[in-house]
Amino acid sequence: MHRAQTSITDVSIEWPSVQDVFQTMTFQAGYNTSVVLAGTTLLGVAAGIVGAFALLRKRALMGDALSHATLPGIAMAFIVATLFGVAGKSLLILLPGAAITGVLAIVATQFIIRQTRLSEDTAIGVSLSVFFGAGVVLLSYVQNMSSGDQAGLATFIYGQTAAMNVRDVFLMGTIALIAIIAAVALLKEFALVCFDEDFAAVQGWPVTFIDLVMMTLVVLVTVVGLQAVGLILVVAMLIIPPAAARFWTERLGRMTIIAGIIGGASGYIGASASALLPRLPAGSVIVLAAGVVFFLSLTFAPRRGVVANLSRAARLRLKIAQDHMLLEILHKDLQHSEATEGASVSIGSIRKRRSWSLIEATLIAYSLQRRGLLRKSGNAVSLTEEGQDAATRVARTRRLWEQYLVQYADVAPSHVDWSADLVEHVLSPEMVTRLERSLERAKRPAAPVAEGAA
Amino acid sequence: MSPGLTEFMSLDFPALLAVVLASVSCGLLGNFLVLRRMSLMGDAIAHAVLPGLVLAFLVTAAFGYPEHARDPLLMMGGAALSGIVTVVLVELIQRLGKVEKGAAMGVAFSVMFALGVLLLEQAAARQVDLDADCVLYGQLESVMWLPTDPTASYFSWSGIAEMPRQVSTLAFIAFAVIIFTTLFYKELRIAAFDPGLGKTLGFRPQVMHYALMIFVAAAAVAAFEAVGSILVIALLICPAATARLLTDRYFTQIGLTVIIAIIASVGGYMLGTRGPLWIGLDQSVNAAGMVTVTLGGLLAMAIFFSPSHGIIARSMRRFRLSVSVAREDLLGLLYRLEEHGAPGMPRRQVAAAVGPWLAAQVASRRASQRGEVNSRNGLVELTAKGRTIAQSLIRSHRLWESYLVDVLGLRPDHVHDTAMRLEHVRDAQTGSRLMPRVEATIDPHDRPIPSNGPSAPAPTANDDAKSDGHA
Amino acid sequence: MTPILSKPDRKSATPLSARPEHSAESPVSIHALTVAYHRKPVVWDVDYDAPPQSLVAIVGPNGAGKSTIIKACLGLAPKAAGRVEFWGQPYRAVRKRIGYVPQRESVDWDFPVSALDVVAMGRYGKIGWCKPVSRQHRAAAMECIDRVGLADYASRQISQLSGGQQQRVFLARALAQEADLYFMDEPFAGVDAATERAIVQVLRELKAGGATVIVVHHDLQTVAEYFDEVMLLNMRVVAEGPVSDTFTQDNLVKTYGGRLTLLAEAAEAVARAERGG
After folding, report:
1. Residues of C numbered 2-41 whose beta carbons fall under 8 angstroms of chain B's beta carbons: which are they?
2. A4-22, pLDDT tens digit by residue?
């Protein structure tokens, strides 16, 4: 084993100057670099848009089998071309080969799912790895061939934008553009089939044909993306941008646009970084850039993001706890026969009934105090006037809900309190009004209901 | 020792051993992935151990101990770490982000793999002996067993002690995997078939789940040097998937997996290193890739030829069924003709009367071979033996019609087709014809229901010309 | 190979409507329909004619094949035998006149579309290939969503609706198809009282407008109140006809009270043989 004593510091990285960075990223660093940058960006946009539909059709990993399975096709096309004395490295020869074995892998996967007892995930894993293995065998044969032209084939595995020539990029860009146009034109049809295939069929849409078009677009984007991103990672361009885009919107149209933007940006960043720094495979940088966007989206997106979800859950929990505390104090209030306003209750006694910790109880009391619903004196608390109103309102909503459930939903009475606890906190004021009305129509509620909802 | 044997022992044997050990350990673990429908988790982990592995290399190199770069413990540590990170990542993305499982896996493993490739490129720059090709193929060629003392036997202790590091690592992993699957045989089975039940029985399926994932990651790394990062997926999934098509028993499934793994790795290795030479090519091809292809070939054979679940066996069974249905229909038809006083059926009409051509041909030949029908003057007619069978069939048909009309309340003019299907149905255990228990001697079309006893020529019903059930 | 279930239909190819028992007026005529899933027969030999301008309930226990019949009528489940015609014509010819409300669980409600978008899908058949949803079609969709009382929720993402509201969105989508015959698969399953009333209201409006609605229904309590016709189903039609004559204690016992073991066993045996396993 040969290994020089090296350490991280031994390898100096030549950082590009600010000017270099600026020039590259504004398409001024020479014709070739600019074309590659533009082409990769376009590819990213196409992959993001097409991927959105693959994701919504729950076919994300079918693309994985497809992309891995392009390897034997590439090697085979090269071998055949060389045998016929044609320069094998032309994309026009290699990409059709890639597409053929890629599609073959999908057909094999579907065949296994339909005809055997093996499940979908096993079928995908099997065709992915076996096709890839066949590719490895063929590639090892190619590498020992005497043609001398084969070195470039490895770029298809990890992707290398630097190895692309202008003609390759134009091919890639054109096909990416076609995919974008097709996806936009068929947005309505794709959406329908992805959302509700049966309904589409009943309306007379040719579901299989639309599916086929969708799959063709996936194949096209995958195959033309091979050289830039590499066949192991190209599927990430189809999955990550749309998955990230989903966090930012609830509309399909906007989701495809955002996915296109994220995909395009990742492609742009990847190609520039690869052009500026040595030893940065464009594919990896593209995927990592998209990955960063994904994790930022997952964490910080305003509605679906983790932070937003956690804070929403915390707010709801607090609201429930506040309501419970108001109810407890109200109960104590009513137990005092004179029911004077502002009778005080000790936090300790409430705490025991709700099994809150002291800190929880104090925090809840504090938050109520800040809302001006609670008055605190030492260890005892009492409701303010607004607090009493609020507590009455909570009690009434709960009662309404209980009666509603009993009356309409055939729910066993023993379950009522539990459901009421969960639901009353999310009831909107309009819902409360509607409940009142429906109850009044059916049967006059026992207790008079206060006017006006919160 | 002959030079040929020495060459085999030093070059092929260790590589072969490495592949076999790798495929057996992966294959065993793969069972639980396939049975739990988590095959793609194996896929994800196999891709995702790369960064952990490279990181372990880089760290040792950075601290100036490159000779420890392939320390098995460090590698396993790095791999287990990335394995766990991947599993947790997938679960987090799925749960917190409400992303569908497949997509969550796709995000997690492609980001991990991209990170791995990036680190790999940096590592390559630092002359760490690990390159991108290794990820694809492994480095089976570099597994060599060269004892310092060439005269010493390979079978002496000193010889074995100098077993290549890759092989000893794999042997260790294989040993650990076998211990794991044996010790937790029951628990793994429950976790595979019914995690819910496992939980109620106190088996803690979650713990088993993570243990399994760690083992998968460790096996993936150990196998990394033998077959590379992506072909590991085939070692994990293919043997178990093939066994799944051959058996329904848990124990047999596991045993078959081991056998398939061994056959494929030995066969694949030989095909890769020797195969091209046999067909006259001048150089060998990648053996690891060939192992994968062999695994795929075995699976394809199982898909088509498995005696229990194979496509061919199933089609054969279906064809045999349709022949037997056509034969019975033929006998039934002749019986009905006898009832109407017809002498028999013209030979040429037989095929058209009882279903698809091929099945009908085979059926009519079989019926005459068995002596159930006779052919006289171009007319086909029942023998006594055939009449007995036909009688039981017609009995079944008319009992079914009565059942459908009297018990289920279907319309009499519609039950003929349904009864035509049901009359052939046999009880799974006894193999005897399934007959509804109906107290009737006359069917809904006023035809007599033949008794169960020995046959006499069918009573002719001259006055009633309408045929059975046809509306 | 002859699968037992796909024996050539020896019946003549004359339209069902030409037969005495089926009328051309009937929006849907089902004749000798047998459906198998994974080669296991789940519906045997069903005959039915829906009277025009009526509300029909298909009622039966779980696994009786209620949804299967609807799916087979619409070509979503393969027919093992038998035929279905609409106004005396095959399905393809009259597709545009047929509306469909699938089960609520059949789609992913996290799909990034608004309630109005889903309702607009009912118009897609009228819009045609590649054209975006025009203003008129959006307005028509809006009208439908208003009819089910969800105008205020039109722009909500569909996962933010309650189960009942989601069901009403599906109903509105079917309304947007402007069909003459509707198939609805369990529209009343798991909905609140408000939704139930809204659906019943819509059903009555549809009938008043001349349409026929065939509904898979699970609630025996409400059959008599909501529907004109009923088909009692348990793998085969136990009884069918006007609710007043058909929906009897006797028939219900026949439908729900077992007595199917032999037929179910036979179906199992057929499936085993057909699968070759």
Report:
1. 2-5, 7-8, 10, 32, 34, 41
2. 444 444 455 677 888 888 8
Phi, psi of B134 (to 5 degrees): -60, -35
CA of A310 vs chain B CAs: smallest distance (Å): 9
A 367-396 near C (Cβ less than 8 A): none
CATH of the domain at B376: 1.10.10.10
- A388-441 sits in which CATH class? mainly alpha
In angstroms, the CA B30 to CA B241 distance is 8
Laid out side by side, the sheet with B373-376 consists of B345-346, B379-382, B373-376
* Phi then psi dihedrals of residue C49, to 5 deg: -125, 125
Distance (Å) from the alpha carbon of B132 to chain A's nearest alpha carbon: 9
How is domain A308-383 classified at the CATH fold level? Arc Repressor Mutant, subunit A (1.10.10)
Number of domains in chain B: 2
Query: Is the minimum CB–CB distance between B97 and chain A shorter than 8 Å?
Result: yes
ipTM for the predicted complex comes to 0.90
* pLDDT value at A177 more than 90: yes
Chain C residues whose beta carbon lies within 8 Å of the beta carbon of residue B410:
45, 236-237
DSSP state of B198: H
Domain ranges within chain A, ordered by starting residue: 18-303, 308-383, 388-441
Task: Verify whether the Cβ–Cβ distance B98 to A304 is below 8 Å.
Answer: yes
pLDDT band at A452 (very low <50, low <70, confident <90, very high): very low
The tens digit of pLDDT for each residue in A25-72 reads 788 878 888 888 999 999 999 999 999 999 999 988 899 999 999 999
Residue B359 touches partner C, C-beta closer than 8 Å: yes
Burial pattern B356-392, b for ≥16 Cβ within 10 A else e, equals beebbebbbebbeeeebbeeeeeebbbbeebbbbbbb
- Tell the residue number behind the tokens 């009434």, with chain if given: A396
pLDDT tens-place string over residues A110-148: 999 999 999 999 999 999 999 999 999 998 888 887 666
- Indicate the CATH number for domain A18-303: 1.10.3470.10
pTM: 0.86
Domain that holds residue B140: 3-309
C-beta atoms of B422 and C275 within 8 A: no
- A295 in reach of chain C (CB within 8 A): no
